[in-house]
Specification:
This protein is of the alpha/beta class and about 375 residues long. It has 12 helices and 17 strands. The radius of gyration is 23 Å and the shape is globular.
Length: about 375
């Protein structure tokens, strides 16, 4: 290859951090020449003010500089024409119409709802950490924050306030945090707004738009952080995604586990299948080995038993111990599976994620039994 061809090959392999595809495949690379060791590289971004512009330019510069014989790099950055953007969005949709819900029963993406009977059991914290742990397993993971009134996923993942999806014409690209493509109503609030006071129709429309208007691309798993209880959103998602799988989060205490059972039963009524129970805030082990059951014991096992049927056992997937690191990670926006991977809570979540990642599908499209071994 000539020097220019070598630089083009290196630059073309740079990945767009939002679209998660090489910029060469996205037709973002323009003229490239090499003169006296200096590579002159032309690229185009999808839109003016692209939030990933600095990273793309930095990665392009690094890729070109790494080519043997290149002693300097100059990068010229432009913007796609409207016709080029239209061609790009059509190619990304792969023939699917705009505002198409891609997560139907025939989709290869597993849709997993994370639900709880009541608030305060750490459901969103578990969901955020599970999403990151699954992404660390090499899976393409999306996360929908469907807890519209109590949204917390952006903060748990460290997504800065004011971050919004990138729009390429009518294509809406979700922000990516810790390898997880994420969407939340918190990304659409105006300055000064912090409360969403909506009723049924608006809630249904919001959830529907998250699933149709947001372009997640090809996902292995889509996690949906459900609001606590069995209200409007649970009913709406039951209608839109009756084939979804459900994880139920509870704490060990009976007051939480009794209510958690109801959320699993409601999901089952819509046709969704409960695939496991997660017990959060379980026993905490002190440095001297003393075990403290601050919230009691046995709640997760009780929920799993209550939701099991002879032909459809529901396992207790994980008992996640109380963990200062888990709480701190949520406050700082760095999930514990990343910030403290050796922590007992992080290990429990990673073990569960590994089991979910190993799980396959049968010929009928139904998920195969889950094993934690």
């Amino acid at each position: 290859m000539t020097a220019a061809e070598s630089v083009r090959a290196a630059v073309a392999a740079v990945t767009d951090p939002e679209l998660r595809r090489p910029i060469g495949d996205l037709d973002m690379v323009r003229d490239i020449t090499v003169e006296d060791g200096v590579a002159h590289v032309g690229i185009v971004l999808t839109i003016v003010g692209c939030p990933a512009a600095d990273r793309i330019e930095r990665d392009v510069r690094g890729a070109a500089a790494a080519v043997p014989g290149v002693t300097g790099v100059e990068v010229e950055v432009g913007v796609m024409t409207p016709a080029e953007r239209t061609a790009l969005t059509e190619r990304l949709r792969a023939g699917r119409p705009a505002r198409h819900m891609p997560f139907g029963p025939d989709s290869l993406t597993r849709v997993i709802l994370v639900s709880s009977g009541k608030g305060g059991v750490g459901k969103s914290t578990v969901t955020a950490n599970l999403a990151v742990a699954l992404a660390d397993q090499g899976l393409a993971v999306g996360l929908v924050d469907a807890d519209v009134h109590g949204f917390s996923i952006p903060g748990l993942l460290g997504i800065p306030a004011g971050t919004q999806p990138t729009r390429i014409d009518d294509l809406m690209l979700p922000p990516v945090a810790h390898g997880v493509k994420t969407i939340s109503i918190g990304m659409f609030l105006r300055d000064g707004e912090s409360v969403v006071a909506w009723r049924g129709p608006m809630l249904h429309r919001t959830v529907s738009q998250f699933l149709t208007d947001v372009f997640f691309g090809d996902l292995d798993i889509l996690l949906i952080d459900m609001p606590p209880g069995t209200g409007d959103i649970a009913i709406s998602i039951g209608q839109i995604l009756p084939h979804a799988e459900v994880l139920v989060v509870t704490t060990p205490q009976a007051a939480a586990s009794d209510v958690a059972i109801r959320s699993g039963l409601v999901a089952r009524q819509t046709g969704q299948r409960v695939i496991g129970v997660i017990e959060n805030m379980s026993a905490y082990t002190l440095p001297d080995g003393t075990v403290i059951d601050l919230f009691g014991a046995g709640g997760g096992a009780a929920v799993a038993e209550a939701l099991s049927a002879p032909d459809a056992p529901v396992p207790l997937l994980a008992s996640i111990p109380l963990s200062p690191a888990l709480r701190q990670g949520g406050d700082e926006g760095v999930p514990v599976v990343t910030s403290a991977p050796d922590d007992a809570a992080a290990q429990a979540i990673r073990t569960m994620a590994a089991a979910l990642a190993r799980r396959g599908r049968g010929l009928s499209g139904r998920s195969l039994p889950l094993s934690i071994g």
